[in-house]
Amino acid sequence: MAMNMKILTITPGWTLYKEIQWINFPASTKEGNQDILKIKGIINAIGIYELEADSESLKVIAHR
């Protein structure tokens, strides 16, 4: 009788969390600058979310 085994790998990082409290979009990344106002407009077009924005970043609050 053959036994099938499945190897489970655990990816460290954000995948270990059951809840995400917020998502942060920094204005400046190592890949370059992001347009925070454009990102905010896209998010607002999708739905109603609690946002915190300043010149450095845009934070989408998922859970408090």
Report on this model:
By secondary structure, this protein is an alpha+beta fold. The protein has a domain of 42 residues. It is 17% helix and 28% strand. The protein contains one helix and five strands, in the order βββαββ. The strands form two sheets. It has a three-stranded antiparallel beta sheet, with helices on one face. A two-stranded antiparallel ribbon has the order 2-3. The termini are far apart.
In short:
The chain is an alpha+beta fold and 64 residues long.
Q: Let me know the number of strands.
A: 5
Category from helices, strands and their pairing: alpha+beta
Could you report the average pLDDT, rounded to the nearest whole number?
Answer: 82
H and E order: EEEHEE
Residue runs with pLDDT of under 50 for 5 or more positions: none
Number of helices: 1
Measured as a percent range, the helix fraction is: 10-25%
Radius of gyration: 18 Å
> What oligomeric assembly is this protein in?
single chain
| Beta-strand proportion | 25-35%
**Basic shape:** extended
Let me know the largest β-sheet: 3 strands, antiparallel
Order of strands across the main sheet: 1-5-4
What separation lies between the terminal Cα atoms? 52 Å
Give descriptors for this structure:
64 residues, alpha+beta, two-stranded antiparallel sheet, 5 strands, 28% strand
What secondary-structure arrangement, pairings included, does this model have?
Layout: E1 22-26, E2 28-29, E3 32-33, H1 36-46, E4 50-53, E5 57-61
Antiparallel strand pairs: 1-5, 2-3, 4-5
